[in-house]
Amino acid sequence: MIEHRVYLLDTNTVSQMMREPAGRVTQQFANVAALDLTQGMVISTVVLCELQFGLLRKPNRRLSDSLERILTGVEVLPLDIEVVSHYAQLRTHLEQNGTPIGPNDTFIAAHALALGATLVTADAEFARVPGLQIENWLQPL
Length: 141
Known about the structure:
52% helix; 6 helices; Rossmann fold; alpha/beta
């Protein structure tokens, strides 16, 4: 049986791909995308908001062009009704345990949970999210 996976790319992963278009993270993206085992590479609209904010704060034509190229290979998914219950449960759980994460990261984690996706991130705070599958393509292999 073929395993179908969705990879939701976090802001730090896409940022690294933007900075180093031929780097290790981009190569990992290409390797995973080449396998016929995935349903796709996606990013959340929350991630795209963070990336666009960064580019507006510090405009950089090379990075903007790099993002445009990356966006041709991924689907940008909006938050939908499926994210709502994951968000509410996750935020409640983390706050009750005294381990909240940032508001955007809560949305990103809830989005990944709703999709059943593996979150590709180097952000350690996501490790506090129960049931979230994580891969870090930024760490050395």
